[in-house]
């Protein structure tokens, strides 16, 4: 076990592989930590962000069997940035397929932040007997008010980051005015139309960089220029993250409005120990959603991190997530 101020130090995976889940999609997964440990599934954000060894930093490797899954179209899963057969229902089914493939009777924990919190909630509500605990960060339920929060001209992001928001809109200047009126739909067309030549491919990547530059600039109280530069230079990450996000956002996550917060859905998971960790100054996912979830699921615990934005790597957020995972690691949740 190696623990420092940044969490548990990543080590090499003890296993990795590919799981074919459809005639189109093959998923990449890795396993870290203790082979016979308590299984935790890490559900990455985005959609489209993918996983990395740093995704394991929240979990004590002497206790947890840590499973990282690159969701459809993300990371090393194939085909890259594919939006066909890519909906929330597909991703929920993929988590269950991976659990079966790995012969895991029950996840000790489903851990998800941002879009990962959406997916963790959706999976737990669909398979409540397969989840021992939920750790959710930066809650996102894809309601219209949440989508408007970050990318509407009247939303707080535009008011707090007028320069960044203007740059986000400026990329759309060459489009007809009626398209520019709805940035989601405008970027959706730019990012999902199949490129016909090298020039159109370059334009698509440029649109992806414009989309991601906006998110990276607003995702943390103290954005890391080095981290932003590294991601923006990764063409595969740029395209998958932007294309899959806009695909899901334009389609409201393929969920009914407020579906994940409905009483009948939450009644299915009231028995599952649930902890919510939310940055007080989250500009990407409004803290109101974390509050709405906690009110509708009062059995949960909610921790507002007073010095944090959206990122899981904000010091206060990361510290609390490690603390909660350590706590749940000591519990018998079979």
Q: What's a concise summary of this model?
A:
The chain has 334 residues and is α/β, with parallel strands linked by helices. It has 13 helices and 10 strands. It has 2 domains: 217 residues, 3-Layer(aba) Sandwich (Rossmann fold), CATH 3.40.50; 96 residues, no CATH class.
Contiguous low-pLDDT stretches (5 residues minimum) are none
The assembly state of the depicted protein chains is single chain
- Element-level helix/strand string: EEEEEEHEHEHHHHHHHHHEHEH
Q: How helix-rich are the residues, as a percent range? A: 40-55%
How many independent structural domains? Answer: 2
Q: Tally the helices: what do you get?
A: 13
CATH topology of the largest domain: Rossmann fold
| CATH-level-4 superfamily name of the largest domain | Alpha/Beta hydrolase fold, catalytic domain
Spatial shape: globular
Summary keywords:
334 residues; alpha/beta; Rossmann fold; 2 domains; eight-stranded mixed sheet; two-stranded antiparallel sheet; 13 helices; 10 strands; globular; EC 3.4.11.5
Would you write up a description of this structure?
The chain has an 8-stranded mixed beta sheet, with helices on both faces. The chain has a two-stranded antiparallel sheet with strand order 1-2. It is α/β, with parallel strands linked by helices and 334 residues long. It has helices spanning 88-101, 115-126, 144-151, 156-160, 162-170, 177-180, 183-192, 198-218, 225-232, 235-250, 263-266, 287-296, 315-329; strands spanning 3-4, 7-8, 15-20, 26-33, 38-43, 64-70, 109-113, 134-137, 274-279, 301-305. The protein is 41% helix and 15% strand. The protein starts with a strand and ends in a 5-residue tail after the last helix.
């Amino acid at each position: 076990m190696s623990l420092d101020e940044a969490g548990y130090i990543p080590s090499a995976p003890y296993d990795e592989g590919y799981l074919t889940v459809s005639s189109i999609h093959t998923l990449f997964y890795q396993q870290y930590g203790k082979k016979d440990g308590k299984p935790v599934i890490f559900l990455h954000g985005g959609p489209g962000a993918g996983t990395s060894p740093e995704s394991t930093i929240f979990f004590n490797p002497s206790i947890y069997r840590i499973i990282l899954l690159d969701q459809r179209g993300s990371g090393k899963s194939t085909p890259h940035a594919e939006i066909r057969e890519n909906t929330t229902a597909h991703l929920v089914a993929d988590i269950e397929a991976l659990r079966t493939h790995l012969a895991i009777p029950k996840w000790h924990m489903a851990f998800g932040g941002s879009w990962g919190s959406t997916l963790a909630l959706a999976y737990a509500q669909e398979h409540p007997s397969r989840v021992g605990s939920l750790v959710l960060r930066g809650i996102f339920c894809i309601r219209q008010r949440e989508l408007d929060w970050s990318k509407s001209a009247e939303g707080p992001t535009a008011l707090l980051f007028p320069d960044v928001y203007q740059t986000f809109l400026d990329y759309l200047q060459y489009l007809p005015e009626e398209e520019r009126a709805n940035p989601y739909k405008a970027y959706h067309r730019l990012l999902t139309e199949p490129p016909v030549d090298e020039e159109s491919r370059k334009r698509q990547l440029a649109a992806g960089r414009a989309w991601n530059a906006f998110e990276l600039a607003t995702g943390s109280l103290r954005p890391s220029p080095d981290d932003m530069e590294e991601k923006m230079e990764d063409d595969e990450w740029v395209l998958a993250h932007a294309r899959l996000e806009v695909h899901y956002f334009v389609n409201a996550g393929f969920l009914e409005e407020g579906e994940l917060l409905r009483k009948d859905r939450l009644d299915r998971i009231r028995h599952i120990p649930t902890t919510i960790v939310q940055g007080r100054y989250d500009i990407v996912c409004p803290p109101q959603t974390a509050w709405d979830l906690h009110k509708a699921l009062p059995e949960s615990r909610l921790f507002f991190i007073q010095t944090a934005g959206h990122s899981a790597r904000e010091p206060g957020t990361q510290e609390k997530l490690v603390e909660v995972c350590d706590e749940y690691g000591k519990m018998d949740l079979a």
